[in-house]
Amino acid sequence: MNISNLLERNARKYPYQEAIISGEQRVNYFELDQQVNKFASALKQQGISAGDKVVLFMPNTPEFVIAYFAVLRLGGIIVPVNAKLTGKEVHYILEHSDARAFIAHELLFDAVSGVQGEDLLLIKTGKGRDSWKSFEQLLANGESESIACTLSEDDEATILYTSGTTGKPKGVLFTYRNILSAAIMMCVEMEMKPESRILHMMPLSHSAPLHLFLVAGTYVGASHVLSPTFTPEALLRLVEGEKVTHFFGAPVAYLFTAKMPTIESYDLSFMKFWVYGGAPLSQPEVALIKEKFNTDRLCCVYGLTEAGPTGTLLLANEHSGHAGSIGKRGALGTEIMIADDEGKELPPGEVGEILLYGEGNMKGYYKDSEKTNEAYHNGWLRTGDLARRDEEGYIWIVDRKKDLIISGGVNIYPKEVEEALIAHPAISEAAVIGVPHPEWGETVKAYIVSNEKFEDVKETCQTFLSGKLAFYKIPKLYEAVTELPRNATGKILKQVLRDGNKSGVAK
């Protein structure tokens, strides 16, 4: 079984079922399969063959879906990249992935119009330009005759690039087995069926939207509703208008939408699973969303790109009293363990690293065997997340392992300090890092984004934190900034903050 087979099967089994809905455009599974054959044929005519890497730089559009399946149908390896990346970042991925073709959407073309390469096939949607061929023209000239993909589950399928918060992005290489394991997990856990209608607003270049929702939905023959961007208004309109049954979004998508004054005028009753991931929601935030969305179907998924993503689940009925945790069991086909540095499982209450085991775990980092070996311990994937289990078995993430600060031999978790700081009414964001100290090894420094100017940032923050945190956790150093450095996915780049402190040692 491979992903191309899923689409072929649906074209035979559900030919008139809506496969893609995008604005006024509606394409059934038979039509989609035909378009995929035609584009795969066109790519083949241009010299693309099995094993070739094809980089995809597109928002959530029908062209993304067609190109995705067409590359896999040829036996190629698809490399979807974030639509928010800069031209320089895309260029790095093109070189690192050994790309043979680059397909860009005209909405994003300005960022990559300068890309060149004698051996690189360049394709853009809309009109062709210079050495760039037209996506639509290639599609029109392709042949609809079926192209058989005979790859097995152990063959390589996809490279997804990490966000690069600690350095250059790493290419996460997946086999069909890895992806299908993650997809089947989501089908079972979130009860996907041919009648399901899945809304895609989060970027399909990310592992969760792509593998857990696009591939999973295709596995069962569900309908895919595509939106190139997220807005609260579009979310509500599409859920009501298309009778959406499944949606995955970042917590911020839910919180922004919950604040819409018109939300109660929309009929959201067809939704069976409101799924969120990427960060936890607190108990008050969960209560707000459940009230505003009028739902008891809110579910949390935890995982990471390298795991497929598979990991854990906090189901709808577990949110009461456990919001903020990531659940207590591994998702279907996945095992989870909290372990010490030697890989030994720790008892409840003790902080250790989350390790995951399952067929969703990546084959490895592309062209980086050293980093791949570091990522695994006896077949278990190291997540880099530090967490503890409570007495009921629920898992609570404490922080990222790489962000842990050790001052005077004592562990300090930046996440705890950051949460305490942003409780201040004038502080909108905070990032905490460890900086070198001649006696203590490290000391704590906080970067503050505030809504008002403090006369003395250090005095204001230390006074506010006094009594809320143990003395040794309270930052000794502070810096007020207008914004925190972030990557294209919105993650704070703490490495940039650390690099800014390399020239000096705290006194």
- Envelope shape: globular
Q: Count every helix, treating DSSP H or I runs of 4 or more residues as helices.
A: 15
Which stretches are low in confidence, meaning pLDDT under 50 for 5 or more residues running? Answer: 503-507
CATH homologous superfamily label of the largest domain: ANL, N-terminal domain
Q: Strand content of the residues, in percent?
A: 25-35%
Query: Count of DSSP E strands?
Result: 26
Query: Tell me, what is the CATH class of the largest domain?
Result: Alpha Beta
Strand arrangement across the biggest beta sheet: 2-1-11-10-12-13-14-15
* Overall SS class: alpha/beta
What's the helical proportion of residues? Answer: 25-40%
Computed over alpha carbons, the radius of gyration is 24 Å
CATH fold-level topology of the largest domain = Rossmann fold
Main beta-sheet strand count, sense and barrel state: 8 strands, mixed
> How far is the first residue's CA from the last residue's CA?
61 Å
CATH architecture of the largest domain: 3-Layer(aba) Sandwich
Global mean pLDDT: 94
Total count of domains: 3
